[in-house]
Design a protein that fits this description.
By secondary structure, this protein is of the alpha/beta class. It has a single domain, classed as D-Maltodextrin-Binding Protein, domain 2 (3-Layer(aba) Sandwich). Helix content is about 55%, strand content about 20%. Strands 1, 2, 3, 4, 5, 6, 7, 8, 9 and 10 form a ten-stranded mixed sheet that branches. The termini are far apart. The structure holds ligand 6CS. The site of ligand 6CS has 11 residues, from strand 7.
């Protein structure tokens, strides 16, 4: 009898242990959702995959990646992340200015350099990114993890252009949600049309728009060079993307998991920054090889002058919108000067 009781106790103890183990697994082995505005082989996908692999190799958590199109448009994914339905979001900065006005900083014309070494330095050391934007993201329910470049903005059109006068009346598609993109193309003489990525291909096929802007690697990957005739490098901008987490989710993580997420972001940031330097050359090389009839134009220094003049108004307009915008733009200029002086 005595012996029977102790077996019963042992059984109860074992059941208890199993229950505790099962609970720990469900608490500590979570599946986190990561949505993004690009496919898995695109720059945001390279970042997301490096992030996911790091998390999965260093913990029992798993990450499910939702690429472009699987969870609606980019604006929907931003709302879903703010609401905590998604834990992580990869998003083009050009979609964020409507929600986080300060993010329009990254779409301002003739502010970012085209030199990849300077960009690399800037995206690693920028005070704007590392110190000033994180509390601004927090106010919007987000935890900023990274901002990284995807290549110089290239403009593709049906007809060539060399001056703002050539752009007059041209309907140029811009990413929706960024007032500065609209203001930029207006200043450049064109008629901007904000439109989601999902609508752009159809709009080009039916001549609803006369052109669009995107980084070269994306233009090649999604065949935009076959839907337009000319690609023009104006030097006016760089395409950038961000990665962020839902703030309440991040705040609720254990100290260990917070460190894990931050280390994964640091790792993925390094991976994409080393890729970023090659993206433009890769995209352009493929276009030249596969589509020899496509015209490539680089505006001369002289041709850029009126565009740069027009850009000054847009920069001033951004700075005039809020104190926060002004402070960020001032610091951005200081960060970029430091990048120019220190980039190797
Ligand atoms: O033009 C767009 O809307 C898309 N372009 C890129 C390079 N990434 C995603 C974005 O949605």
């Amino acid at each position: 009898m005595k012996h029977f009781m102790s077996l019963k106790k042992l059984n109860a103890l074992l059941t208890g242990c199993l229950l505790i183990a099962a609970t720990s697994i469900s608490v500590y082995a979570a599946e986190w959702k990561y949505a993004m505005g690009e496919g898995e082989s695109d720059p945001q996908g390279i970042y997301a995959t490096a992030f996911k692999d790091f998390i999965q190799e260093n913990s029992r958590h798993t990450i499910k990646i939702y690429p472009v199109g699987s969870l609606g448009e980019e604006a929907d994914m931003l709302e879903q992340t703010k609401a905590g339905i998604l834990q992580f979001l990869g998003q083009s900065t050009g979609y964020m200015g409507g929600t986080i006005p300060e993010m329009d900083l990254f779409t301002l014309p003739y502010v970012m350099p085209t030199d990849t070494k300077q960009l690399d330095y800037f995206f690693k050391n920028s005070k704007v990114i590392n110190e000033m934007l994180p509390p601004i993201f927090n106010q919007h329910g987000l935890e900023l993890l990274s901002i990284f470049p995807e290549g110089e903005m290239a403009v593709t059109t049906f007809e060539p252009f060399h001056s703002p006068a050539d752009l007059e009346g041209k309907k140029m598609r811009v990413m929706p949600g960024s007032p500065i993109l609209v203001e930029t193309y207006q200043a450049f003489g064109a008629s901007p049309v904000p439109m989601t990525w999902g609508d752009l291909i159809g709009a080009l096929k039916t001549n609803m728009v006369d052109g669009q802007e995107n980084p070269t690697v994306w233009i090649e990957a999604y065949g935009l060079d076959h839907l337009t005739n000319v690609l023009t490098y104006t030097g006016h901008g760089h395409f950038n993307a961000s990665a962020s987490a839902n703030k309440a989710f991040f705040d609720g993580l254990s100290e260990r998991d917070k460190k894990l997420v931050l280390a994964a972001a640091e790792h993925a940031h390094k991976v994409i920054l080393s890729e970023a330097q090659k993206l433009d050359a890769y995209g352009l090389g493929r276009i030249v090889r596969t589509n020899p009839d496509f015209t490539i134009v680089t505006l001369t220094k002289e041709e850029r002058v009126p565009f740069k003049e027009a850009a000054k108004e847009v920069q001033a307009l951004f700075a005039s919108k809020s104190d926060s915008n002004k402070k960020l733009l001032d610091q951005m200029m200081a960060d970029l000067k430091e990048a120019e002086e220190n980039a190797e």
